[in-house]
Amino acid sequence: MSLNEVYITNTSLFLPNEPVPNDDMELYLGYINGKPSKSKKIVLRNNGIKTRYYALEKGGKTTHTNAQMTAEAVRELFKDNPEKLKAIDLLSCGTSSPDQMMPSHGVMVHGWLPEAEAIEVVSPSGVCCAGMHAFKYAYLAVKSGDAVNAVAAGSERFSASLRANNFDEEAHKLEELNKNPYISFDKEFLRWMLSDGASAFHLTNKPNDEGLSLRIDWIEGVSYANEMETCMYMACEKQADGTIKSYLEFTPEEIMTKSILSIKQDIGLLSDNIVPLGGRKLKKIFEREGLTINDIDYFLPHMSSEFFRPKIYEIMSVFEDYIPYERWFVNLTTLGNVGAASAYFMVHELFKSGKLKKGEKLLVLVPESSRFSYMYALLTVC
User: Fold this and answer.
1) Most CB atoms within 10 A, among 4, 11, 336, 360?
2) In whole angstroms, what is the distance from residue 172 CA to residue 178 CA?
3) Distance between the two ends of the chain, CA-based, in angstroms?
4) How many other CB atoms sit within 10 Å of the CB of residue 166?
5) Are 14 and 83 part of one and the same domain?
6) Under 8 Å between Cβ of 68 and 351
């Protein structure tokens, strides 16, 4: 059976509301226990983010669900010809912040698209790699001929879980016990890192008749969970031996007073491992594909923080060469860390920038710290 070439023929982006500058973050997320954060300035100084987007009004009222934002991104793909939305035969949606545990995120997105037909819908779970898993599923479906017009999407709505009211019970409990009423850094750290939004790709087996397309040369992934313990986690608590205790094993009171449902990060484990492990698989892929650093015209690494920029640069030493910063394309500073959507955001902005020329190659790298997974993709402008 011959396999199809697969092309990204359009990309889209949906950002909720207006950009939120650093000084205004707590006007949206709130003050935990009524007190300004002690760690906010330190985290922001290191991550380099200047603005981000929240699906919230000031005061914390929700303006959009994750599913609604994703549906708007899908709709945006076909704004010039809305009838084409009826032709899609696969919807593949990745996120780490679904609005509910059940039904799946993908079918909720489909529910906000009444103009679409009855189609196959998939919802890969995970963290930052979830959007890339959705992308790969759509790619493989078109490549095999199982789908002709597929939509892949990545999205996040982290802001709902970052609001102060999710932590107030823990802070009050600490105060009652005459302890420091500030929540631990592993919980507060991510309040100043994460952003909301959605983005989507239209994938098909033919390039655009006019204008540019992106041919998908390959998408690959790897997990190191067999050798690494959990680093980023939610709805559970990490134990002293590195294992995870599920929220299902806590009492309702403990869930509130220990902020069990919050997103947490083992910062020490992250800093020591996230970058070195990312280079291991990439070197093997390059050797197999006969690629060198000089073949890459644009490098799109998903970074949670500008802190990792020089560290990612250094992992290129495994190739005995480096991708110079002038060939990097990153929009973390203006859009924030949008997890499963970040790779989509970078590809979208570059695709719409007018900078691309036929024959150029884009290397996408997405690390996921949850238990150290990575996704890689090579796209060629055509």
Assistant:
1) 336
2) 10
3) 25
4) 21
5) yes
6) no
Residue-by-residue DSSP string for 165-232: GGTHHHHHHHHHTTS--SPPHHHHGGGGTB--EEEEEEEESS--SSS--EEEEEEEEEE-TTT----E
If asked whether residues 308 and 168 sit together in one domain, one would say no
> Would you say residue 287 lies in a domain?
yes
Q: Is the dihedral of CA 93, 96, 97, 103 positive or negative?
A: positive
Same domain flag for 361 and 292: yes
What whole-number distance in Å separates Cα of residue 126 and Cα of residue 119? 23
What amino acid is encoded at 82 in this protein? Answer: P
> Domains in the chain: how many in total?
2
In this structure, what are the phi and psi dihedrals at residue 161, rounded to the nearest 5 degrees? -90, -5
Residue range of the domain that includes 276: 217-222+268-381
Q: Six-digit token pair at 294?
A: 């000089």
Q: Is residue 62 part of a domain?
A: yes
Task: Judge whether residue 227 has pLDDT over 90.
Answer: yes
Average pLDDT, the chain: 94
- The pTM for the full model equals 0.95
